[in-house]
Amino acid sequence: MPHFAHGDLIAVQTTQPLDRTLDYRAPEGGCATGDFVEVPLGPRKVLGVVWGPGEGGYDLAKVRAAYRVLDVPPMREEMQVFLARAAEYTLTPMPAMLRLATRVPGLGQDVSLRRVYTRGAADPDRMTDARTRVLAVLDEYQGLSFTLSELAEMAGVTTSVVKGLVKQGAVYEREAPRDTPYPRLDPDLPGKPLAKDQGQAAQAMVQAVQSGDYGTTMLRGVTGSGKTEVYLEAVAACLAKGRQALVLLPEIALTAEFLHRVEVRFGARPAEWHHGVTQTERRRCWKMVATGGAQLVVGARSSLFLPFRDLGLVVVDEEHDTSYKQEDGVLYSARDMAVLRASICSAQVVLASATPSLETWANVEAGKYNALTLTSRFGDRAMPKMDAIDMRDEELPGGRWVSPSLQAQMQDRLDKGEQSLLFLNRRGYAPVTICRACGEMVACPHCDARMVEHRFLKRLICHQCGETKPVPPECPSCKVEGKMAAVGPGVERMAEEAAALFPDARVEVLSSDMYASSRALQARIEAIAAGAADIVVGTQLVAKGHNFPLLTLVGVIDADLGLQGSDLRAAERTFQLMRQVAGRAGRADKPGAAVLQTFQPEHPVIKAILSGDEEGFWKAEAEQRRAAGVPPYGRMAGIVLSSPDVQAVFDLGNRLARADAPLRRIGADLYGPAPAPIARIRGRHRVRLLIKAEKSAPLQAAVTEWLASVRWKGDIRLSVDIDPQSFY
Ligand code: ADP
Ligand code: ZN
What single string gives the DSSP state of each residue in 515-527? Predict the structure, then answer.
């Protein structure tokens, strides 16, 4: 690490939106590459990291000095490399990247520091009895620091005596972190005895972790096949080697159950990192990850940017889950960034899923990733039996969605005291509110989106921008009263229907918007798992890994829902979601069943879901994508321009389209500009361009050159999404 003496020129990367590092002079005491520093920028103090030596080449007299080095562990070189490469890949400016790595409360302001007191170098001008006692305590406990009240109490003096000594330099006052290491996890505690295929998979992973090299492994196995038990063995091997491990989960509500499993396996709880933990805990986690006081972190995608001292293993559980793609701010895929990060720090990656993404399959096929498969459910529990209910044959009155066939099966479960799940991936009461007099639909004033009625909250909500308003008693357009009607089903409405069909059943809705906090949601999930409901109505939230041992029937209200729309991953998503939801049934000793209500039982995707022929499905899907040259067999980038001014945004789109020479040079095709599928969000008109290139094409370089060739003024935002997952 180059060390810079006081006054040396240093380059500092700040979190401010600037397209380069800034030069400063090293502060008093000097600094080193990687140090977190506070520097002046105009009239402000901002946070930065010493990135290397200053570049010079300008008026050196104007270079200002950095204020100070922050009392936090410096950024490791490997993190600098990771951020730089992630920035390059995602075409994200470095300051935004650095913000991801410094999203920790109090890094700059030292807010949650406490003042501690140690023996200073100077002697007091005059000794008093009280002062002598203070210094005696400090001499006796040399090397330990005290808070003000602790020290005063031990010396039997008032705090003003201590403060007097501080002024004289006889006692040294400084800020020290409150944060304490996490309890040690014991990797030597025995795990569960593993089944044969589990044991083989675990052994392969343990060996990979022990090698100390980089590698990525897809761990595939149906829900309940014991993947978690297997990768916990890899975690154990990693901890035993003295390295740190990270487990990414797609949903905060899953952490409680997982923390518990870790505690059972390793004797203590790991560190947690997601937006549901307190500021103080986040800070503690960040620091302890950096100093080695945290061996294992369980977290959301942003935990990839924690300052691990020695990361040896990253597990991405439910790796296919779309929530791993960050959809605003910095657009990155946590799965891909996990692989990048691991390759830089010689760590292993485990991508676990019952239904891996096609990207991961393709990487296995290409020999880049290893593959391990668990073939059966643990203890030979059968996968649920899957059937379609052909909705064309069912008699259903308007405004009702539970077919008589499904109803009969639910009744059967009720009679046996077992649980049923009605799955519908639509929050709220009804997706559309329409005036029966004039046909007007209630739309969001800021977005090109309908407002969704949430009866539980007694409001209409825009799922794009969050705008809410009460359900109007009269039509906003024709002013006729009492004609506003809900059209189509949402989970709340399904719950109403279930309650009407089964008046004695306990019906419960599980949807993220119905709980004030993730803790409340977790608590409710645990209660339901323990039997607090007979019928659960849920969104995709319930598809993600929760254990409901009493659940033996899953009814998918609308299996066709995800197949509409033009998303290139529509088939993949539907397949994954349906298999995942079905996997909720029959986890304990009772066999489960899953039924799909569909109007197109002969659709190839529906047939693949029902037959469970996963390999067949992926092969067919892969062939189609290969033929179309789309991901994972081709590359894409999405560009969204947005502005309050619709003309300006189309003009820029057209200018970009005309300037496509750098894209053509790499053989890429440019589509658009076209109105984005959601053409207006928060009052901004949205226009999209789509780039398609061959897999080996240098896409980022070409896009950078292309965008740099066009300038614009005014309030137009441009976002680049490399490997887009959604096309809204
Ligand atoms: P997955 O992660 O594949 O969904 P889990 O690891 O959660 O599967 O395992 C499903 C259930 O089976 C869990 O309740 C788990 O505790 C149990 N289980 C898995 N493997 C074993 C084992 N070897 N011995 C005992 N119980 C196991
Ligand atoms: Zn809106």
Answer: -SSHHHHHHHHHH
For the chain, which residues score pLDDT lower than 50?
111
Between β-strands 31-32 and 3-4, what pairing exists: parallel, antiparallel or unpaired? antiparallel
Q: Is the shortest distance between the CB of 539 and ligand 1 below 6 Å?
A: no
User: Pairing between strand 634-643 and 717-722?
Assistant: antiparallel
Alpha-carbon span 356 to 349, nearest angstrom: 14
Ligand 1 mutation target, pool 223, 229, 589, most atoms within 8 A of CB: 229
DSSP, collapsed to helix, strand or coil, labels residue 491 as: helix
List all residues 6 or more positions away from 250 whose beta carbon is below 8 Å from its beta carbon.
317, 318, 321, 323, 324, 544, 545
Q: What angle do CA 540, 274, 266 make, to 5 degrees?
A: 95
pLDDT digits (tens, 9 = 90+) for 217-234: 999 988 778 899 999 999
CATH of 3-101, one of 3.10.25.10, 3.40.1440.60, 3.40.50.10840, 3.30.470.20: 3.40.1440.60
pLDDT at 381: 61
Q: Which residue's alpha carbon is nearest to atom 5 within ligand 1?
A: 226
Residues contacting 595, CB < 8 A, separation 6+: 386, 387, 388, 389, 405, 406, 409, 553, 554, 555, 556
Measured over the CA atoms of residue 220, residue 225, residue 226 and residue 228, the dihedral's sign is: positive
CA–CA gap between residue 674 and residue 539 (Å, rounded): 31
How far is the centre of ligand 1, averaged over its atoms, from the C-alpha of 576 (Å)? 20
Q: Whose CA is nearest to atom 15 of ligand 1?
A: 226
Domain map of the chain by residue range? Answer: 3-101, 113-177, 196-235+245-254+269-275+290-374, 385-431+488-621, 634-722
Atom of ligand 1 nearest to the CA of 545: 4
271 C-alpha vs ligand 1 centroid, how far in Å?
A: 22
Please tell me the distance from the alpha carbon of residue 367 to that of residue 616, in angstroms, as a whole number: 20
**Ligand 1: distance of its center to the CA of 225 in Å?**
6
Tell me which fold the domain 113-177 belongs to: Arc Repressor Mutant, subunit A (1.10.10)
Q: What is the pLDDT of residue 516?
A: 67
Q: Dihedral of CA 122/124/130/133: which sign?
A: positive
Q: In this predicted structure, what is the pLDDT of residue 359?
A: 93
3-state DSSP assignment of residue 446 = coil
In the reported structure, the alpha carbon of residue 286 is separated from the centroid of ligand 1 by a whole-number distance in angstroms of 31
Contact (CB, 8 A) for 592 and 384: yes
* pLDDT for 353: 93
Q: Which CATH class is domain 196-235+245-254+269-275+290-374?
A: alpha beta
Query: pTM (2 decimals)?
Result: 0.83
Nearest CA to ligand 1 atom 6: 226
CATH architecture type of domain 634-722: 2-Layer Sandwich (3.30)
Q: Which ligand is nearest to the CA of 449?
A: 2
What single-letter amino acid sits at 417?
Answer: G
In whole angstroms, what is the distance from residue 535 CA to residue 507 CA? 5
Given the candidates 2.120.10.30, 3.30.70.1060, 3.20.10.10, 3.40.50.300, the CATH classification of the domain at 385-431+488-621 is 3.40.50.300
pLDDT computed for residue 449 by the predictor: 85
Query: What is the C-alpha separation between 575 and 592, in angstroms, rounded?
Result: 18
| Whether the CB of 546 sits within 6 Å of ligand 1 | no
Spatial CB neighbours of 472, under 8 Å, sequence gap ≥ 6: 442, 484
Closest atom of ligand 1 relative to the 225 alpha carbon: 3
pLDDT of residue 376: 72
Domain 3-101 and domain 385-431+488-621 have a common topology? no
Atom of ligand 1 at shortest distance to CA of 547?
14
Amino acid identity of residue 11, one-letter, is A
